[in-house]
Write a structure and sequence with these properties.
9% helix; globular; 4-stranded antiparallel sheet; mainly beta; 8 strands; single chain
Length: 122
C-alpha cells in the first residue's frame, strides 16, 4: 500500500525512525498463535473493539486491549497516515513478565517501573 511505501522511503532517508509496530485492521479477532510480531492488530469495523499485540519484552504473551469506553480498563488507539500506532494510556502487564510501556508512533517506550527499562525491544 502507498502508506507502507512512503513509510519505508522516509525510514531509508532517515527522516523517521523505523517503527517497531505498525497497525493492521481486521474484522475478526485473531486466532490464538497467529499474532504477528511487530503488528498492533485492531479489530472492528466502523467501531474499533479490541487491539492485540505480542508483548515487546519477548515473553510471547498476547496482550489484548479493550477499546470500548464502556469497559474498564480501556485504551485508545490513534494511527497516523504512515500506519504507526499510538496507544494510551500506558500498557502494564500486572502478571507474568510485568512489563510496562507506552506505544507511541510505533515505538516502544519502557516505563521506569518496568523490568525491561534498560532493554531495547527485540
Amino acid at each position: 500500500m502507498l502508506h507502507e511505501w512512503v513509510r519505508e522511503l522516509l525510514v531509508s532517508l532517515r527522516f523517521i525512525r523505523k517503527p517497531q509496530y505498525v497497525a493492521i485492521f481486521v474484522t475478526d479477532n485473531p486466532a490464538p498463535g497467529t499474532l504477528p510480531r511487530g503488528q498492533l492488530v485492531v479489530v472492528g469495523g466502523n467501531t474499533w473493539k479490541w487491539a492485540y499485540l505480542l508483548c515487546p519484552c519477548g515473553c510471547g504473551e498476547t496482550i489484548m486491549l479493550s477499546l470500548s469506553p464502556a469497559r474498564r480498563p480501556s485504551w485508545k488507539v490513534k494511527v497516523d497516515m504512515l500506519g504507526r500506532p499510538t496507544v494510551y494510556p500506558s500498557i502494564h502487564q500486572t502478571e507474568g513478565c510485568r512489563s510496562h510501556f507506552w506505544l507511541r508512533i510505533g515505538i516502544i517506550q519502557w516505563c521506569s517501573d518496568s523490568p525491561f527499562i534498560n532493554q531495547r525491544s527485540r
